[in-house]
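My main concern about presentation is that the manuscript never shows what a single data entry looks like. An entry of this sort, consisting of the sequence and the corresponding backbone structure tokens, reads as follows:
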Amino acid sequence: MGLLTRKSKQKSSAKTVSLYYASDLHGSERCWRKFLGAGRFYEVEALIMGGDLTGKAVVPIEHRPDGGYRTEFLGEERTAQDAEGLAQLVDAIRFNGMYPWIADAAEIADARIDERARDRIFERVMVDELQRWIDLADERMAAHGIAVYVMPGNDDPWSCDPVLESAKHVQACDGRVVRVGPHEMISVAYANPTPWSSPREVPEDELYTMIQGLAEQLEDPTNAIFNLHVPPKASGLDTANEMNDDLTLRYVSGQPNPVPVGSTAVRQIIEEYQPLLALHGHIHESRGIVKIGRTLAINTGSEYNSGHIHGAVITLGDHEVRRHQLVVG
């Protein structure tokens, strides 16, 4: 009679997918380039961008009659005398999440006194810069065979959407079901109301209905990714300092008062559907990982204005998160 031996455990043959997630770049070109570079650096199959792509300010650069350039940036005057100096100036502005706008003195003066003209300039410059980002992603990631999923966030204007929808390799994923390897993913850019009245905010009941409508389309929500820009309420992923009505910090006993500001709708959806993975941004200072029931929920946070990108590298198997790690690049 042969020897009796313990039966060895067989490794699962279920297909896995590795991904890198980040959010809240707010116009930082350096962070966008790092986001794209993360695909090869971490050897993942997919990149997911969770929203708030665009910056908040345009920096005018005056093209002077002598051929040089002048601007005021970060509280100081800066000049450039040639194309190389101009390129350095433009790069510095983009590094800080702002948009360079080159114009003559008369155009800049008109924009300072005409609010509608400023709005038009900002919209045009922002769209042009976002198009550059998407073109770069289309070219580089297609060549490397890395899937890219991008959605806007609550801060992003509606003019971003046509740019994302026109991409060739990048997949616009807001408001739809897409496949990330063997997993379904739903994405929602909207947030519950904030003090800033940003473009994509809705009451909690509407946000719940919006997300639920997508969740009901899933074949198996428990094996899905929920890419929801706003984090769940009182999860530890949504703590921010409380604001007064005039957008100043509220102090309690002389100190800023941290409070949960996430979405009750997002929390309810996660508790009801128990997706495999929930990805969030929105609250920059609440970077972390928590479990809500069986769901692994992640907020990667954001430090875009320093040029550092906060992200997460995750490997998913069938109905399991095999590996996950917060990373900074």
Helices lie at 29-41, 83-95, 105-113, 115-144, 160-165, 204-215, 264-273. Residues 1-13 have pLDDT under 50 and may be disordered.
